[in-house]
């Protein structure tokens, strides 16, 4: 794992955007896996700035999002489809035909999940998968004790995740209980994963993910087994890490070609 710790979420977002830019600029037809929630927003704003400044084009990119709420149509302002359009895709030069999100309101959710997996395979797989992490260690919507071999499928949210996500809804009862999410095995097939986390609320999950045992009780810990993972943290999210000073030492002593 490559652990990058910065003083603020803003500084981390700039680094994360440079990681994305590096992937895009070194691939002919880059395939990006994207995440939603509060954490990636700053990174998306940085990518928009780069795009508008002429430093980065996403015209040749194909994207696949991690997840979507079950039962919400794309035009619902609480859907992740709406989130991605309003916070990124409508503000950059990407070809919307190459934008893919799980269909949370498909008539046949199981068939839609199988088709999503096929679309990822047909695109040649994901070059960079952007991830967040839940306070309980989930990635995508793969909750604790779920299978490490899982594929894109319909999942039931934990009570903690429902509570955490209720800030985006008027009432707790409005938060969908079901979601469509890429599975752990799908995520692990990405050639490079980048996980972003900010704030003290994520510190325990970060500690378990990086320094704890690989266990389904913390789904994100499976990333210890991935060949190429970049973790971008602010100081608050990293404060429980035993080897924090070592991670900072490694970052300071990188070779030029290892920098972003």
What does the model show?
This protein has 260 residues and is an alpha/beta fold. The protein has a 7-stranded parallel β-sheet with strand order 1-10-9-6-2-3-5. The protein is built from 8 helices and 10 strands. Helix 1 (9-25) packs across helix 2. It is 31% helix and 16% strand. The protein has a single domain (2-258), classed as 3-Layer(aba) Sandwich (Rossmann fold), CATH 3.40.50.1360.
In short:
With 260 residues, this protein is α/β, with parallel strands linked by helices.
Keyword list:
three-stranded antiparallel β-sheet, alpha/beta, Rossmann fold, 260 residues
CATH architecture: 3-Layer(aba) Sandwich
Strand order of the largest sheet: 1-10-9-6-2-3-5
Summing up helix and strand content along with how strands pair, one would put the structural category as alpha/beta
Helix proportion range: 25-40%
Instruction: Give the amount of beta strand, in percent.
Output: 15-25%
Overall mean pLDDT stands at 97
Low-confidence stretches: none
Blueprint of the fold:
Elements: E1 2-6, H1 9-25, E2 31-34, H2 41-52, E3 62-65, E4 67-69, H3 80-87, E5 99-100, H4 109-122, E6 128-131, E7 153-156, H5 159-165, E8 178-181, H6 184-188, E9 193-197, H7 203-211, E10 229-234, H8 244-252
Parallel strand pairs: 1-10, 2-3, 2-6, 3-5, 6-9, 9-10
Antiparallel strand pairs: 4-8, 7-8
Helix pairs in contact: 1-2
